[in-house]
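Handout, section B. The chain below has 607 residues.
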Amino acid sequence: MKRIILVGKPNSGKTLLFNQLTGLKQKVANFPGVTVELKSGQFAGYQVVDFPGAYSLHTLSKDEQIAVEKLHEALLDDNTALIVCNLDATRLESSLVFGLQVQRLAKQHNKALIFALNMIDELGRFGHHIDTDALSRQLGSPVYAISARTLEGIAEFKTALQQDAAAASAIPELSDLRPDAASDLKQARQLAAEHGIKDTVVLKNQNRIDSFMLNSISGSVMFLLVMFFLFQSIFTFATPLMDAVESIIAYIAEVLTEALGPGVIHDFINDAVFGGLGSFLVFVPQIMVLTLIIGLLEDSGYLARAALICHRPLSYFGLSGRSFIPYLSAHACAIPAIMAARTIESPRKRLITMLTIPLMSCSARLPVYALLIAVFIPDIQYLGGLVNLQGIAFFALYFMGILTALMISLLLSRSDKIEPTATDMPFILELPTYRLPHWKPLLQRVLQSGKHFIYRAGPVIFMVSVVIWVLSYFPAGGDDLAHSYLGTIGHFIEPIFEPLGLDWRYGVAILLSFLAREVFVGALGTLFGVSNADENVAGLAENIQQDGLALGAGLGILLFYVVALQCVATVATLKAETGNNKLVIGVVVAYGLLAYLLAAITYHLIG
């Protein structure tokens, strides 16, 4: 299949254009470095490949290096029919620097190239218009004005793209081949001065807002308020949705179990299916709310400012301001966050960031936190319900993960074994324009987060719930859990968890959660005989309270899950990104031992 290559500078609307062409739903956001791996889809019989953004063919970061290496490979491939270079109409000079370099490289390999002048909808805000015909003549390649956000010019661009790809040899050749990067920069400045918006016009309002957002005092206060709002909202805004999910599952459970009547099948549906899966599905709204708030911060352009604010404090721990965005993204999922760390220029800081990302509390920890917070923290609300005590406890757990990551980063930064020969790189970050969120892709991302959570963890939790139910139901028919097959296994491993103040049931749930952290809640739901959704969260929490779980033991479990690395997919991603199996295994073991030690100390101190 012939291939169309899509390249451009970071945060220029390139991935949104890719989504419009292919119908896919790749993540888009208003900060540099969202695309960190090649994405492919199909358009009109062609394979369209979205490359990571790059500012220049002379690379600094790993993601730029990957993009340039893959671009060279694509230019040598006979199946590459056309290169589409995406330009940011609001920042024409920086886009053209890379665009002219790619144009020159394409000519050297006898490949056709066209320019997509994206974000033209934003030119209207400044009363500006770009003459694409004149720009096309000066560049010597076709230029198409589009907006992947509002779909302006997209239909015409798709038609032209099919024609250009089918007749690549007919695309005009370069009118002026510039021999070096200095000439590319000079030409980019000349063209931007003639056709683009003056920086003083674009940056006028942005600088006014940044004078507050980037101020050392007001910016820091705003950052803390935003982060507190982020974690508080997971409880405040998600609670009504969680209640609705509970009610729906309760109704389905009641209808099914009444229709079945008493017996083994009734017990299986009641205890295994609704006891395991029901306890897990109720937390999907929290994951979706978390994704929504992070998405709003990304699309607004605030995240890049937050990274700049965090650069100085993070540098004390051997990290970079660019570490902030992978850290924050890891609160949704560690896997894409580890890959996003490719944007960090310094190899040493990039590796330290990757190794400490698993300490960020990802969405898989949410069910564990929510359950145990419900057990020990009363639901006391303040400020008319905008702030509640459980939300504050939730924030404290996330803060604990961040603090642990910073302490370990400090230790790693002083180690001679972490990239000892790597040269440190300066901190460079492009601040994007402030924008209103693009709701359609944002809501698609929110729905995908819930879908991904269910599809990834659901099958594992269902399988584990079935196994637990079978082992706990037989041979006594579920009447004597302690002497069931599961009870026998649990009592065998119980000595391992006694120093943590936990009995065999919690030990079984913790061991099973090494398959997926979410399994912990579903496993306890089955072990405590919680079936319908009316009991799923509140009922399971009440059962644990009545069972007499000590405060120290409960807090120990929370600290265990803050630190322990219990995700096979995350471990695999770390291995792939670092290429050092021994280092990754050492991290897994170290985090596991530290988690166990913290849980044991907490139990013995608090009791």
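Note. Strands lie at 3-8, 39-43, 46-50, 80-88, 113-118, 143-145, 381-382, 387-388. Compare this with the example in section A.
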